[in-house]
Design goal:
The chain has a single domain, classed as Rossmann fold, CATH 3.40.50.720. It has seven helices and nine strands, in the order E-H-E-H-E-H-E-H-E-H-E-E-H-E-H-E. The protein has helices spanning 13-22, 37-41, 50-55, 67-75, 98-110, 123-129, 140-150, and strands at 3-7, 26-30, 45-46, 59-62, 89-92, 114-117, 120-121, 132-138, 154-161. Helix 1 packs parallel to helix 6 and helix 4 (67-75) runs parallel beside helix 5 (98-110). It is globular and about 35 Å long. The model has no long low-confidence stretch (mean pLDDT 97).
């Protein structure tokens, strides 16, 4: 199984990460604002930065409040983009504006890294249950690789386009 980095462990991200751990995935977790000792006690490895998460992961998932936080976590100083492994895939599951999505996607593409924009719907109850609706856009091969992972967090997982 791929090592998954998970950034953003708030209301939605924490239960999503828990579902991945319960499914047997190895996670490296980080959140600038929230403690994540509970996830470490379940078997996740804690990191000290977004860059460290990326340096230890093959697939990096972000679930953050909004566009500024996604930009900071992925392409900001000490961000995911600075620690990427060759062949990594970045999946942003936050609800962000199209301009941010394009900017982050272009920066990752320049680093030869696949990017999927995969926002969720269903709120905290569905995140806890693992029954979110996930609509992704991006590279089809990258989507097919991460789809089994996304299916541990959602029951409706579709690729809507590129």
């Amino acid at each position: 199984m791929a090592i998954i980095g998970f950034i953003g462990l708030g209301t939605m991200g924490r239960p999503m990460a828990r579902n991945l751990i319960k499914a047997g995935h190895k996670l490296v977790v980080y959140d600038k604002y929230a403690k994540f000792d509970d996830l470490v006690s379940l078997g996740a490895e804690g990191a000290v930065s977004n860059k460290e998460v990326a340096s230890k992961s093959e697939i990096i998932i972000t679930m953050l409040p909004n566009s500024p936080q996604v930009k900071e976590a992925i392409i900001g100083p000490g961000g995911v983009i600075e620690g990427l492994k060759k062949g990594a895939i970045v999946v942003d599951m936050s609800s962000i504006d199209p301009d941010t999505c394009r900017k982050v996607g272009a920066a990752l593409e320049a680093k030869k890294t696949a990017f999927l924009d995969a926002p969720v719907s269903g709120g905290e109850p569905k995140a806890i249950e693992g029954t979110l609706s996930i609509t992704a856009s991006g590279d089809k091969a990258a989507f097919e690789k991460v789809k089994p992972i996304l299916e541990k967090m959602g029951t409706s997982v579709v690729l809507a386009g590129h």
